[in-house]
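Researcher: Structure prediction, please.
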Amino acid sequence: MYDVLYADNDERSRRMVCRYRFWQESGFSLKAKAASGEEALNLLKKEKFDLVITDLQMKAGEDLLLAEVMKQQNCRSALILSGSLCSFESAREGMRLGALDFIPKPVTERKLSEALERIEPELRKRKQQAQGALSGTVNEEEIEELYREIIAGKPDDEALEGRVRYLWGVLGETAGEEERGRRGAAILGELWIRLCRDYPWIERLNGGEWLEWRSWFRSDKRGAGEAVLCLKRMRRMAQSLRLVLVDETVNRILRSMAEKLSRADCLEAVANELELSKDYVSTMFKKRMGIGQNEYLTIMRMEYAGYLLKTTNLKVYQVAKRAGYSTSDYFSRLFKLYANMTPASYRREG
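Model: Predicted structure follows.
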């Protein structure tokens, strides 16, 4: 089965393609749809898709086509473009950017099925190669076990370092240094994808800035050290946010809190969105999480502030405002209590 993302800013086209019986009768599954390039890129960060089908004119930023951004970001999903026949030059440019095929609009069921039949052998080959990257090395059960341990905050530093040594050795048994690095990056990237899958609001607080793709599992000691650091930071975030206790109801609350993080009336706005009283939400939250909602909101804001300090050049007062604080002095005092260092020191630490 191949998972497909269909991205088109034409609502009529999206609605029509979603209704095709083809999805129920073929080896392709329409897993998600997107109405903009930005939405498509966000989905690609959180989930794995074997194929992206998109209008060749769809933008993913100022003057940047989605296909161009996907290529720049080394997206592993295969790409099919659609568009009018008169835009052949644009389609040819899309092919240069890595598209496997072009479907003239309107995207009828016949055109779609014929295009997917043409590229299926290539998709099968890619999927076999991706599965082979972990075959005989690290299996899905081992990755899932490591993920669950990190969420529970169980592995101590020594255990995490041992895991990296194990991965280092196993990944190097059947591959050279470059391939081992790619496989290691895939494993750690999979952990982040699973985190965003189970806790969708996490990405609003931290875009995974500590996942430095090119430095993972290099042949020198620094690469192994950075891999350990990656796992430690993931574990620390899981512990701070008590992810092991989060259930579906709490996830809804936290998603809303993350969306309204910068608002002074964040908790009132969350309760209104859920159509519940603020006191009820607060009581239920503390019962399930073992921590007050106000205290948890502070933790979320500190995590978000840390992310901004690491990844932007915003002034401290600007970070404070985005994190929901009107004064930088009060924010700085809270941040120092949380991180054991000032915002400026935290930024310098890298």
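Model: The chain has a mean pLDDT of 84.
Researcher: Thanks, that helps.
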